[in-house]
Amino acid sequence: MAKNVFDFVGNLDTLIAVVIGAMLATLGALLAELIQERLGRRRRERDAARFFGEILYSIDRILDVAVNSQRIGDPWGSVTQRMFKTALREAEVYQRNRERLFHLSDTALRARIHAHFVTEMFPLEAIVEYCEELCAIAAELETDGLPPARVEKLGCRATVVRGIRESSLAVLLSERARTQVVCAGLEPIAGVCFASIAEADATVAGAIPMPPVGASASQQ
Length: 220
Description:
disordered C terminus; mainly alpha; 0% strand
């Protein structure tokens, strides 16, 4: 009888040890999974912050080149128009990756980034569309035998469109000035100082000789 009790106690000790071992293994696996998930979330958040910061910086760099090109020849020549189109295509990269915003845990920061992109894209799209409309008007005005009434109507429309285009550019540049504030919110998450990158790039760009302001419009 005593032997059976001792055997039972021994088996019970073994069973308890097995159960405790299984529980510890399960808890260890859960803990490891939680740590891995947290590290993965941090990595996704960091990558998203770097992505949006780089897109913002890239768009603004192209806008700066487009605005500076207006000092050379025709302010709205083909080169300038292509630069604005390039900036718009770059902004569309954000549209295609907008869901990555949700990797950022800061709700207010997500709202600021989205509002900034939308506020930049609206006038940028308008500038591209109005440039295309003005090109179409110019092409139609070159048509032979165009009625005087039509010529006058096209001229009036061109004047209106030019005014709206300039207003759109003013809105775009005003919002572009807020990029640094938005990027400042991304820098602690991204672990990157976007301002220093912009300054270094501006220094390099300033070292590149530019054509004189009075260059021929044919360069556009």
